[in-house]
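assembly run, all chains below
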Amino acid sequence: MPGLQAQHISKRYGKLVALDDVGFEVAPGEIFGIIGPDGAGKTTLFRILTTLILPDAGEATVDGLDMRRDVAEIRSRVGYMPGRFSLYQDLTVEENLSFYAAVFGTTIRENYHLIKDIYQQIEPFRDRRAGALSGGMKQKLALSCALIHKPAVLFLDEPTTGVDAVSRRELWEMLLKLKQAGLCVIVSTPYMDEAAMCDRVALAMRGRFMVQDTPAAIVAAYDRRLLAVRGDRMPALLRDLRTIDGVLTCNAFGDAHHVTVAPGLDTAALSRTLAAMGHADVAIMPASPGIEDCFMLISQSQGDAA
Amino acid sequence: MKVITAEHLTKRFGAFTAVDDISFEVEKGEIFGFLGANGAGKTTAMRILCGLSKPTSGRGTVAGFDVARHPEDVKKSIGYMSQKFALYDDLTVAENIRLYAGIYGVPRKRIPGRTDEILQGLGFENERQTLVKSLPLGWKQKLAFSVAIVHDPHIVFLDEPTGGVDPAARRQFWERIYQAAENGITVFVTTHYMDEAEYCDRVSILVDGRMVALDTPAGLKRTYDAPTMNDVFFHLARGAQRGAD
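ok done. output:
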């Protein structure tokens, strides 16, 4: 069962705890998402698992190899797409790809089938310098370079940050294909809605995995009563809701406010209270929680406990 | 009162038309969302409206000043914050506020009072002497926003202000935006988070340099018969021919 297993990984930088006892496993053909804001430890974890830095504590095997002992061998079996574009800006598209293939002792031709779907989209620009590519094309080239040596495990550090909604969707379609080809994919993202594209996810904050499970199981474990509330003046509605007895939390959520309330709260009474506060067109409906609701609830409860 | 007007605003770089004949108006106190795929021309248009770049043709006014003819007056009337905010890590919170207040021309006598107001508004009274580099990202973003409006500008331009923070901090940030708008500051904001498009009074969508949609979020969803702004955006932006940064 190669793939990836990590246990009790910890890393400090001086007083800052970058990773605090993180453990997880990913099987081949699985996409594991690490979902969390900046400072969650995502990049540090990736750098450790790709053998670029050592943790202070913890063990990991990557494609069956030991993270501390088999450094060189692991490097030939993982693909890593860092968050910051790190290809050679002065080399052309094709030169970059040839270079990465050569470094890993292979050729573009040998593994072309692996990158075909992605690379074909940028092949018309093969003679363009990488530095002159658009953001979306750079990303496709970086992914091609990360895949050219046929890695067993692929690490993608925030591949969709700062990328528009259309390009994000294209990237996820590519990752689903790689998963079907049997790759073990570990991807980090600050976008909560992308959790749905992963087989399993960890919700991470301040160096800790707060929870890890399938997205469906995380949502199913949400145990608060959640309402969606709309009105004619949304900012004022947000503030007023927070002053009402029985309202526990209130957050803007797109076109409605998501409000957690006490189990016994009477929605008809809530509606009357809001009307008395001068809100018109108030609509109150039960809401289904999403990953972002779960993230806020869990980070709040674990933050309170800490 | 119109705080921003754009009439046939166009910007070409050689044969490339980055901004292609866009016209719109923004009212005082409005939260105006400016959406588009990477390379749609958002940054170029924003640079023109901030007085940093002259349009090739067309006309724009910001706070009543022509952006091409009176860029210095425009710059004094606006605040600007981007995701790569320009706070100085090695200065304290109070020093950053004082520095920007000075740069934005807040009268020297007003600066201590304004500093206190900001610290109090942010709940940062105890962080006055804290170095900015040791603040959590979400706090830095809130501070960067307060600093961008330290001089009570007519308009604040926010370029993807909420990248990278946790969901709770992202929402707290938007509550500050609401507050600024209620105080009469016009907010011009770009974002890749489609739920944030819902928080805008009106949303415009740029595709290949052209403004293909401008309406309230509810109006856009109705027009395109789409359940969410994400669907509206996808419907309009997937036809984009170009993708540049």
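The interface with chain B takes residues 36-39, 134-137, 161-167, 169, 190-192, 205, 234-235, 238, 251-255, 292, 295-296, 299-300 of chain A (CB under 8 Å).

Chain A has a mean pLDDT of 93.

not gonna interpret more than that til we talk
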